[in-house]
Amino acid sequence: MTARHSTPPATRQPTSSGYPLLTVRDLAIHFGSPHRPIRAVDGVDFDIREGETVALVGESGCGKSVTAMALARLLPEPAARYVGGRIRYRSMDVLAMAAKPLRALRGGEIAYIFQEPSNALNPVFRIGYQIAEALRQHQPNADPRVETAALLRMVGLTDTERTARAYPHELSGGMQQRAMIALALAGHPRLLVADEPTTALDVTIQAQILELLQKLQRDLGMAILLITHNLGLVAGVAHRVNVMYAGRIVEAGPTANILTTPHHPYTRGLLAAVPQLTGSADRLTGISGVVPPPDRLPAGCRFHPRCPLARTPCRDAEPDEETTGPQRTVRCHFWQEVSA
């Protein structure tokens, strides 16, 4: 597989094919000793289609970032072990890729925006140098100076010469995130993985970054995997939502359906924790307890120690995945009571 150079990103259109761009099936990732594995990801399934935004939502420690890093095999091996499942990008088996095509995949096909841009950007290199380095890897025929300026303008940074000469610490948090997005776009990716892209930003800048991602998706025809702990961010941004808890996806479906009629008590709890601009001034409703460590998962339903609906079946047996409607699935013994 080779990087693409002939099609400028602004002219690429989403495919009309109904086939997924990315398919993840029964993915299992363990850390630690094989005799006492730490099951960070345990049987995850989801698809992403061309030009689509899919959200992966859950609290810290649920396995979202590990899942995202696995898509381009960025997890350090053998510390991380892919013990089951498959990842297919277009027609390629990512888990079977050799080193050279894997390097082309990373950044050239699947690019990442990491949380905390001040930590993700290299502090000892200027912004322009970091973007040019990505261009040399994935767009070797491009003029680095011209292309860097074009990428910076694309993400809304108008003083391109000053920004290219700046070190990361000389930029504001919002400018750092825009520079991080420009760096991710240097390889003309088809899939952009945005891992908590607004975590360190104030609410005004958060809205600007989300609006920028939506505009870039429309202009470039990219698919986006948006990873967040905040269900309030996905409304109006994501087409579909996957809710993750303790290494598994416990609910999935179209965004509008998930937000209006959640089927899993965990999803309902996440929604109750989102601040509202209108209505009463009551305290926010939190979810009691914490996400269990992946090496100490409870028996039965993994959410039952924190669930207000938990009963004996929840403690005794892990629920199977059920189809509850068009494109909707849930793992809960009593999901009908949640959605009633």
Give an overview of the whole structure.
This protein is α/β, with parallel strands linked by helices. Helices cover 31% and strands 21% of the residues. The chain has 12 helices and 12 strands. The chain has an 8-stranded mixed β-sheet with strand order 6-7-8-3-9-10-12-11, sandwiched between helices. A 4-stranded antiparallel β-sheet has the order 2-1-4-5, covered by helices on one side. Residues 1-17 have low confidence and may be disordered.
Topology, pairings included?
Elements: E1 22-31, E2 38-48, E3 53-57, H1 64-70, E4 80-89, E5 92-93, H2 99-108, E6 110-113, H3 117-120, H4 127-138, H5 144-154, H6 160-165, H7 173-185, E7 191-195, H8 203-220, E8 223-228, E9 240-245, E10 248-254, H9 255-260, H10 265-272, H11 312-316, E11 322-325, E12 328-330, H12 335-339
Parallel strand pairs: 3-8, 3-9, 6-7, 7-8
Antiparallel strand pairs: 1-2, 1-4, 4-5, 9-10, 10-12, 11-12
Helix pairs in contact: 4-5, 4-7, 5-7
